[in-house]
Design brief:
The protein contains eleven helices and seven strands. β2, α1 (33-36) and β3 (41-45) form a beta-alpha-beta unit. The protein has one domain (5-251): 3-Layer(aba) Sandwich (Rossmann fold), CATH 3.40.50. With 257 residues, the protein is of the alpha/beta class.
Length: 257
């Protein structure tokens, strides 16, 4: 299958790839787009069955490695050989996998509200079974509470992304999260890495998730954003954007594409 990809910004600028979280689309990164497209060519993609990407086909269970390979296929089709990558949650896991599988291509890495392991596999398999049985409605009904702090009032557009997601695509991505564990491989990541964590992120709190990434990836920097839940780039766009732009300014001014 071919993932949907959207390009913005100067065509001759160095490339930054942005990966979405489970249940969201390219629109997740809209708050960061104006700042990033000033200096970089930005490529955003949709996960299988999300947004404008088709649902996964047949075959075995989807893995994060499969998603990383699909992203590379998109970049190959775009003529992009070397790039920076930033991803939220599942999108961050894809970024870690890319940095491990294609270290010569990932020039800089931002891992936002993500983890080397997303908890017990059984919980993800149970969620996948629920969605295959009842659709995405039950998980959409509780998404705002997982994604944002209680006082946040802007959740509706992001919950709408989840409600529009194909159940087979969502469930397949749950299977990928269930099988993902990069903990013992993090020391092999060579890309300069920024880890961004939301101080009030319930699914992947800084303790046990972001701090593990920062401790085990050589030279990684950890930034904890106050007042932010799981989709920190949406809830606190200012500090998250500033951290990402500062990191990219230091690490990715290289040759375009």
């Amino acid at each position: 299958m071919t993932l949907y990809c959207q390009a913005d910004g100067p065509g001759d600028a160095p490339v930054v790839v942005l990966g979405p979280s489970l249940g969201t689309t390219t629109g997740l990164w809209a708050p960061q787009l104006p700042a990033l497209t000033e200096r970089w060519r930005v490529l955003r993609y949709d996960l299988p069955g999300h947004g404008q990407s088709p649902p996964p086909g047949g075959g075995g269970p989807l893995t994060v490695g499969d998603l990383a390979a699909q992203v590379l296929e998109v970049l190959d089709a775009e003529g992009v050989t070397r790039f920076a990558y930033a991803g939220v949650s599942l999108g961050g896991a894809v970024g870690a996998e890319l940095a491990l599988a294609a270290p010569d291509r990932v020039a800089s890495l931002v891992l936002c509200c993500t983890s080397p392991r997303f908890g017990p596999p059984e919980s993800w398999r149970e969620r996948a079974a629920l969605v295959r049985r009842e659709g995405v409605g039950p998980v959409a009904d509780t998404a705002a509470g997982r994604w944002f702090t209680p006082g946040f009032t802007g959740a509706d557009p992001y919950v709408a992304m989840l409600r529009a997601t194909d159940p087979a695509g969502y469930a397949a991505c749950c299977d990928a999260l269930a099988a993902f564990d990069a903990t013992d491989r993090l020391a092999r990541i060579t890309a300069p890495t920024l880890v961004v964590a939301g101080a009030e992120d319930a699914p992947t709190p800084p303790a046990g998730h972001g701090d593990v990434l920062a401790d085990r990836i050589p030279g990684a920097q950890l930034v904890v954003v106050d007042g932010a839940g799981h989709l920190a780039n949406v809830e606190r766009p200012g500090p998250v954007t500033d951290a990402i732009v500062s990191h990219l300014d230091r690490t990715w001014k290289g040759a375009p594409a």
